[in-house]
Design goal:
By secondary structure, the protein is α/β, with parallel strands linked by helices. Helix content is 42%, strand content 14%.
Length: 285
């Protein structure tokens, strides 16, 4: 297994402004990451310029961009035609970046008011929205991965469902809709903890070789906090060996989120992140 980092996390500066793609990639390289995720801001009009700049920076610093992440609209709720355009851009962006995989949330379904959650209808709806971009991704020579989600009861009652592909059978069904070996799974450990708790290792084994990429982050209090591994209560000593059993040997990508570190702390944070990811990789040997 290989330590990796979500370079796009570094884009926003504390106090305002943005780091350039070159700065983001450089910080990862200086911390010792040879593999990264990079996801341009596909909602920004200059996303293509950013993608090219990130690809150039990766070549400059000798870093591989293993995967990128397509935008999702479950919370944002932009008009459907706008969102579908962004998905198409993400496919092209992954190609520009030289990414091996593009990750999608197969979760674009909201029951109508007064309507109960219907997983079968949700799969059909998500397929209609996402399949054109996924097919374009495959046509461009990039693999497509569907990410496991988790239930947060967004805009519904505490006993009602709002998310598709938190349940393992739905994620399996979504992957199966494409009947293509180039479509697989990106396993998100933080989401898995919130959805499955102590049974997450069983779900990892069940997904097996369909797992082609990972999102690594920790949490507690049943919230999607995107903490560094060992800052929460995920049982990494059980999870990583379960992943190893599937034969997985690709990147463990720390999907940091939400925080904006002062400049004085960035280098130290990156070194600690690399150390944490190295420890996880050793568990997978």
């Amino acid at each position: 297994m290989v330590p990796s980092f979500f370079a796009s996390f570094l884009r926003m500066r504390r106090g305002g402004g943005k780091r350039s793609p070159d700065e983001c990639v450089r910080l990862c390289a200086e911390a010792g990451f040879g593999t990264i995720d990079y996801s341009p801001d596909f909602w920004d009009a200059e996303w293509e310029k950013e993608a090219h700049a990130a690809a150039e920076a990766a070549a400059k610093y000798g870093v591989e961009i293993a995967h990128s992440h397509a935008p999702y609209n479950f919370y944002k709720k932009e008009p459907l035609e706008v969102f579908c355009e962004k998905l198409q851009n993400a496919a092209l962006g992954a190609k520009i970046l030289g990414a091996k995989y593009l990750v999608f949330h197969f979760d674009e379904y909201h029951p109508l008011p007064g309507e109960c959650f219907d997983a079968e209808k949700g799969l059909k709806t998500a397929f209609e929205v996402l399949s054109p971009a996924i097919e374009k991704t495959l046509d461009l020579g990039v693999g497509a991965l569907l990410e496991n989600t988790f239930e947060d009861h967004h805009r519904v009652g505490p006993l009602e469902r709002s998310h598709l592909c938190g349940e393992i059978n739905e994620l399996e069904a979504a992957i199966g809709l494409f009947n293509d070996s180039r479509v697989g799974c990106c396993w998100d450990f933080g989401h898995g903890h919130l959805q499955f708790g102590e049974t997450q290792p069983e779900m990892i084994r069940r997904m097996g070789k369909r797992i082609r990429a990972t999102h690594v982050h920790d949490n507690y209090y049943m919230k999607d906090l995107h903490l560094m591994p060992f800052y929460g209560n995920l049982d990494w000593e059980t999870l990583i060996p379960a992943l190893k059993e599937t034969g997985y040997d690709a990147s463990l990508a720390f999907e940091a989120g939400y925080g904006r570190f002062p400049e004085e702390l960035i280098a130290e944070f990156m070194r600690l992140s690399k150390h944490a990811m190295d420890l996880l990789c050793r568990m997978g040997k």
